[in-house]
Amino acid sequence: MTTVLKSVTIVDPKSAYHLQCVDIHLHGGVIGAIGENLPLPQEAQVIELPHANVSPGWFDTSVVLGEPGYEAAETITNGLKTAASSGFTEIMVQPLTLPVADNAAVLHLLHQKASGQATAIHPIGALTMGSAGQALAELYDMQQAGAVAFGDYKKGMKNANLFKIALQYVQDFNGRVLAYCEDDTLRGNGMVNEGITATRLGLKGIPSLAEELQVARNLFLLEYTGGALHIPTLSSAKSVALVREAKARGLNVTCSVAVAHLVLTDAVLENFDTRYKLSPPLRTAHDREALWEGLHDNTIDCITTDHHPVDIEYKKVEFDLAQEGSIGLESAWGTLAAVLPMELIVEKLTAGREILGLPPAVIAPGAAVNLTLFTTEGTGTFTTDQIHSTSKNAALLGLPTRGKVLGIARDKHIIVN
Questions:
Q1: pLDDT, position 34
Q2: 91-102: pLDDT as tens digits
Q3: Quick check: is 306 catalytic?
Q4: How confident is the model at residue 1 (pLDDT cuts 50, 70, 90)?
Q5: What is the spatial distance between Cα 80 and Cα 307, in angstroms, rounded to a whole number?
Q6: Which residue, 100, 226, 101, 131, is CA-closest to 169?
Q7: Mean pLDDT to the nearest integer, 351-368
Q8: Catalytic residue among 306, 320, 385, 411
Q9: 3-state SS class at 15
Q10: Structural contact between residues 275 and 294, judged by C-beta atoms closer than 8 angstroms
Q11: What is the maximal distance between C-alpha atoms in the chain?
Q12: What is the mean pLDDT of residues 51-57?
């Protein structure tokens, strides 16, 4: 049966139909006709949503699903349903599992569990065994099992020589290394951004230097070895400047920023709410402005939700004992649309495929169905009733929103919220 997306505005600068209001026919997982007021096929399912926009399916470069090992925080099935209702047709899954996803067997399990879901997964293999930073994991075997990149979630690599070897080794099979940047010795026992807010509240600070020093080191190593490097969740103005300079020198480096760092600053810490304990920490308004600028000039390649469900027992404790992390899928579109232009958000939520060399999501007749439906109409607030994740720990609760996600279509799956 043919499904017709009726009177939708295409948001895709790479499409010949960019910003045109058209009908789109979907049949058997393929886009059929695209045009204005197309005749309806017999027995067609018509989906007509007010003020609907359609873009290439959104792609999230950093999602923790918990399973296997941390099912109390999130399961693969519910996590993928949450991603679908949040507008994401594909997600990269972090190796924060138990056992750690550092071998092909765990990746096969992830693919098996995710089979048949509307949202597809792309596993990230751990860069080191057990994500312990001591020895490289089975990178090539994991690449053959479907790993799209390699990194240790929220762990900076202390051993510069091991990191150098990793950058060299993955070039044999066009792999990409993910390098979370934070120097543990500079971080120390810090919990929040080092600055005026931390000092006033009496909380131990993490200097932005902890991030910047490792960004600089990793970029020097990349220049030495060649290869491809992705730096996730930049948070400081100086880090953005360092990546901008590296790109100007021709280095193959990409980077992302988390939604929370685009819409919040460390000023929200005044009430010691552990929802705001994140990694990297929320930084200053100056840093946030630099992140916005980095998006506009393409220094920052993509936006991630950095979705990390955390059990309530690890959040409802004293601030210094609380675990870092927050869910982010459900709140991504609405909170971003409240502060950034629509076309920029769509560009940055779909750029991950190009970074990884994956097939693009194309809006054209004959292309595979991979679409996100959304609107920019209406304003509101992100509230608990919008949370579908098992974990309810959300840093962006109470923030103003604009528009909403209407659904997704990928392959033969069509989900309308």
A1: 96
A2: 999 999 999 999
A3: yes
A4: confident
A5: 12
A6: 226
A7: 94
A8: 306
A9: coil
A10: no
A11: 68
A12: 97
User: What does the alpha-carbon distance between residue 112 and residue 89 come to, in Å, rounded to a whole number?
Assistant: 17
Alpha-helical runs (H) found in 59-206? 76-85, 104-114, 139-144, 160-169, 184-187, 196-201
Are the beta carbons of 6 and 23 closer than 8 angstroms? Answer: yes
End-to-end CA distance of the chain: 21
Close Cβ partners of 39 (under 8 Å, ≥ 6 residues apart): none
Q: Are 74 and 64 in contact (CB under 8 A)?
A: yes
Token reading at 295: 């998006």
Indicate the DSSP class of residue 390: S
As a dihedral over the C-alpha atoms of residue 392, residue 393, residue 397, residue 403, rounded to 10 degrees, the angle is -60
Lowest mean pLDDT among 177-181, 270-274, 297-301, 368-372: 270-274
**Residue 415 and residue 9: Cα distance in Å, rounded?**
18
8 Å CB contact between 261 and 290: no
Peptide bond into 359 cis (omega under 30): no
**What gap in Å lies between CA 411 and CA 369, rounded to an integer?**
5
Numbered ranges of CATH 2.30.40.10 in the chain: 3-53+365-387+397-416
Look up the CATH superfamily of 3-53+365-387+397-416: Urease, subunit C, domain 1 (2.30.40.10)
Across the chain, what does the average pLDDT equal? 96
Mean pLDDT of 387-406: 96
Residue 250 phi/psi, 5° resolution? 90, 10
What would the pLDDT profile of 117-174 be if each residue is shown by its tens digit? 999 999 999 999 999 999 999 999 999 999 999 999 999 999 999 999 999 999 999 9
57-356 fold: TIM Barrel (3.20.20)
Q: Give CA separation, 23 vs 7, 75, 414, in Å.
A: 5, 36, 16
pLDDT reported for residue 282: 98
**CATH 3.20.20.140 domain extents, the chain:** 57-356
